[in-house]
Every structure is written in structure tokens, then in C-alpha cells.
Write a structure and sequence with these properties.
Blueprint: E1 6-11, E2 16-21, E3 27-37, E4 40-48, H1 57-71, E5 75-78, H2 81-86, H3 102-111
Parallel strand pairs: 4-5
Antiparallel strand pairs: 1-2, 2-3, 3-4
Length: about 110
């Protein structure tokens, strides 16, 4: 996602997508953290800084992340409560969503230790 103020960067080595405010010296103001299980990307943490709340930025972040996952030929595993609530509001992505399985939760647990 790019507009005049905000960018979303995929930081593969960090296993996260980062929402950046270019008007604030490129400060990271949000993120979507993930872990991959084969060709399934498990989204487990969505965050946007409080001072940016109410601007729809979390939705824009998740939308960009989901589009990127699909473009990579992967499927989406919604573990994060925000993503779980967001996806039913966007049924166009339903064919790309996989139900959470125990191995997904184990991978998240290992990643967040």
C-alpha cells in the first residue's frame, strides 16, 4: 500500500509487514506479524499505534497483507482476532482462507517464545 503518507513494507527476515508513516521520518506505526507453515501464512498479530487509531489503517494494512499473500500463491490462516473479524467482512477472500489447525498454533507459539 502506498499513498502520500503511508507505506506498507514487507520485512521478510522479520516475518512481518510494517505500516510506515512517511510524514513522521518513516516511523513504524503498525505491523502484521506472521509465521509460515508450508504454503500457509499464519497471521497472528495486528497492531497500529494508538495515536493513529480510528483512521482505518489496520484495515488497510490487513488488506495489503492479504493481497500480498494471495499474489504469492499462499493461503491465509487467521489466528489474530482482528484478522478473524476482518475476513468475514471481505468475502472475496474466502477461497484463500484456511481453518486454523494445531500445527499453526504450535508454529505461532514457537515464534513468540
Amino acid at each position: 500500500m502506498t499513498d502520500e503518507r503511508f507505506d506498507i513494507e514487507h520485512r521478510d527476515a522479520e516475518r512481518r509487514y510494517v505500516l510506515v508513516d512517511r510524514e513522521s521520518d518513516g516511523a513504524d506505526i503498525g505491523e502484521e506479524a506472521y509465521v509460515d507453515v508450508d504454503e500457509e501464512r499464519v497471521l497472528y498479530h495486528t497492531l497500529v499505534s494508538e495515536e493513529y487509531a480510528g483512521q482505518g489503517l489496520a484495515s488497510r494494512l490487513v488488506s495489503a497483507v492479504v493481497d500480498d499473500i494471495i499474489a504469492r500463491g499462499m493461503t491465509i490462516v487467521p489466528v489474530c482476532p482482528y484478522v478473524k473479524a476482518w475476513l468475514p467482512k471481505h468475502p472475496e477472500y474466502a477461497d484463500h482462507v484456511v481453518d486454523v489447525r494445531p500445527e499453526h498454533l504450535r508454529a505461532v507459539s514457537q515464534r513468540t517464545r
